[in-house]
Amino acid sequence: MDFFNYRQTKLFAEECAVEDIAAQFGTPCYVYSRATLERHWRAFDDAFKGYPHLICYAVKANSNLAVLNVLARLGSGFDIVSVGEMRRVLAAGGAPEKIVFSGVGKREDEIRAALQVGIRCFNVEVSGELDRINRLAGELGVIAPVSFRVNPDVDAKTHPYISTGLKENKFGIDIQSAIHEYRRAAQMPNIKIVGIDCHIGSQLTETAPFLDAMDRVLALVDQLQGEGISLRHLDLGGGLGICYRDEQPPLPADYVSALLDKLGDRGFEIMLEPGRAIVGNAGVLLTKVEYLKLTAGKNFAIVDAAMNDLVRPSLYGAWQAIIPADTNSNAEPLTWDIVGPVCETGDFLGKNRELKITPGDLLAVRSAGAYGFTMSSNYNSRPRPAEVMVDGAQVHLIRERESIEQLWAGEKLLPV
Ligand SMILES: Cc1ncc(COP(=O)(O)O)c(C=O)c1O
Ligand SMILES: N[C@@H](CCCC[NH3+])C(=O)O
Q1: Distance 273 CA to ligand 1 centre (A)
Q2: Which of 126, 123, 169, 186 lies closest to 149 in space, CA to CA?
Q3: Neighbours of 396 (CB within 10 A)
Q4: pLDDT by residue (tens digit) across 376-397?
Q5: Distance CA 140, CA 142 (A)
Q6: How far is the CA of 238 from the centre of ligand 1 (A)?
Q7: Residues with CB under 6 A from ligand 2
Q8: How far is 54 from 99, CA to CA, in rounded Å?
Q9: What pLDDT digit, counting tens, does each position of 338-357 carry?
C-alpha cells in the first residue's frame, strides 16, 4: 500500500483503515509507509542514471531500526552523527563501508568504535578532530579515511535554527582554512584523504543555494588538485526540503540533474545525505481528540499527542497539516488550536485550523516521518508513542509504546 505522495497530495488509500491502526496500537502513534520510503529513496538513486553515487540517508531524521532496514535492503548508505546511530545502522543490517560520520563533537570512544568497524569516512568538522583521528588510528594500527566538511558561507534561506552553512554557524571548517587542513592531513601517517563534504542546512526549497555552495566547494577541489591532493568523492550533504504546506521544493531528479550539470566532467563519486526528503512525507502522527474547550477567545482541541511526541511546531513554529483521519464527523467547522496535555503554553501541534471535530475523533498530523519520533522526549513523564509501518496490506508494530516503568529505568534511590 502506498499512501503518501512525495508532494503530499494524498494521505490514505481507501483500504488503509486508520481506525484499526488506532484501535490496535493506541494513540498517539507514528505511522509510516514502506512503499513511500522506498519510492523516495529510489527517486534520489534513480536520478543519478548510472553516474557513480551513494545515497547516505541521514539517520537523525528517523532512526527506527525497521526504517533503516528497509533502506539498507535497497543498498542505502547512512550519514550518522553519533556512535548510537552507528550501532543502530549496524543492528539494522547497514553496511559499515557505506557509513559516513558527520558531527562537530566526535568523542574519542566514538572515533575508536567507527575505526574498528571500518566506516566509509569521517566528515571532519574541526581541526582538533583531525589530530585526534590520526592519533587514534595510529593506536589501532589502521588508516582513517577522511573527508572535510567545509562551511561555504552560503545562505540556505531556511529557518535560522536549521541553517548550517553560514560562517556564524558552528558546523564545518571555514572554507578559507580548509586548504590548510588538507595539507596537514596529507602529511599525517594514519590518514587517507578521500573526499570533501558540505551541508548547508535543512528544508531548502530552492536549488540555488546548493549550487552556490557547490561553486565554492569546486573552486577548493580544483585548488587541491593543483597541489596534488586528489579526492575520490564529493558529498553535498542533505537538506532538500519537502512540502509541508504549499512549498514547491525541486524534485530529486531536477535537483540531482542541476548538481550533475554543475559538476561537469570532473569524475567524482557523488554522495548525498538526504533525511527529510526521504522520510518526512512517509509518516504521520495519529492522535485522538480528548476534549474540546471553547473559551471566549479561543477554541482548543485537546489531543493525546503533545510537544514531547512532536516538537517541531513548538520549537520552530513549524506548520504541519492536521487533518481528520476518520471522516465521519458531522460537527460544524470551527477554528481550533490543536494542543496537547503538556504543561507548557508552547505545547501545540497547530494553531487556527479550521476543522470539524468532536471528542474521540482521530486526527493525523502529516509530514511527521522526519524529526518526529527522533526528537521526542519523555517530558511530563509521558511514554513515547508506538511506531508502526504499513507494508502492503499489513501493518507491523516496529516500536512498542514505552511502558511507564521504562521511564525510570536506570534511576536509583539514595542508599539512606
Ligand atoms: C550533516 C548533515 N547531513 C544531512 C542532514 C539531513 O538533512 P535533511 O533531513 O534536511 O535532508 C543533516 C541535517 O540537517 C546534517 O546535519
Ligand atoms: N530537526 C530539524 C532539522 C534539523 C536538521 C539536522 N541538522 C527539523 O525538524 O526541521
Answers
A1: 6
A2: 123
A3: 12
A4: 999 999 999 999 999 988 999 9
A5: 6
A6: 5
A7: 60, 162, 202-203, 312, 371, 375
A8: 10
A9: 999 999 999 999 999 999 99
Rounded to the nearest angstrom, the distance between the alpha carbon of 110 and the centre of ligand 1 is 19
Q: Which CATH superfamily is domain 103-272 in?
A: Alanine racemase (3.20.20.10)
Q: What is the pTM of this model?
A: 0.95
- The segments of the chain whose pLDDT lies below 50 read 1-3, 5-15
Q: What is the pLDDT of residue 255?
A: 97
Residues 6+ apart with CB under 8 A from 208: none
255 and 289 Cβ atoms separated by less than 8 Å: no
Cell numbers at residue 270, please?
A: 557523488
DSSP structure string for 172-213: SEEHHHHHHHHHHHHH-TTEEEEEEE---BSSB--SHHHHHH
* 235 residue type, one letter: D
- Write down the pLDDT at residue 285: 96
Judging by DSSP bridges, how do beta strands 233-235 and 269-272 pair with one another? parallel
321 closest CA partner among 242, 264, 412:
242
Task: Based on the residue annotation, tell me whether 16 is a catalytic residue of this protein.
Answer: no
Whether complex ipTM tops 0.95: yes
Q: Which ligand 2 atom lies nearest to the CA of residue 202?
A: 5
Q: Which of 16, 29, 198, 343 is catalytic?
A: 343
Cis preceding linkage at 415, omega within 30: no
CATH pick for 280-408 out of 3.30.479.10, 2.40.37.10, 3.50.50.60, 3.40.50.10240: 2.40.37.10
Strands (E) in 181-319, as ranges, are 191-197, 233-235, 269-272, 283-294, 299-303
Q: Whose grid coordinates read 548538481?
A: 259
- Domain coordinates of the chain in residue numbers? 103-272, 280-408
